[in-house]
Amino acid sequence: MNAMEVGLNAEYAAIYAYGAYSHYLGGPTADMAEAIEEQHRQRRDRLLVWFAENDAQPPTPQPAYELDQAQDGTDAVAALMATEEAVATAWRSVVHTDEVDQRKICVEMLCAAASTLVRWRVAAGEIPTQPWPGRP
Q: What region holds the DUF4439 domain (predicted)?
């Protein structure tokens, strides 16, 4: 699997997660989730354009993705933080690609995921930053 396939799969999973967890959220947190889901959709679309421009077949989204259980908004925020951590981990895992154009996209996507993760941590009242987003 190449870098763009790994990243696109992560974006598909994130979009699915936002759809599943957003109904637990309200107020500003719900608005933030809606905006972030749209950002993931835009990233997915950008990647699909990349596949088309490179005459490559993109992976298709799965019909469902494994999700953590959520009972309320607190659980949903925790799950969305885990989702963003998974997205950052996916992009970080492929940022070393030898393909310069792909590496540039990977770095941009990793930065976007790290920024989103910080937003969720602030919303949850946690320490917002860590030195290496996407690294266990």
A: 3-135
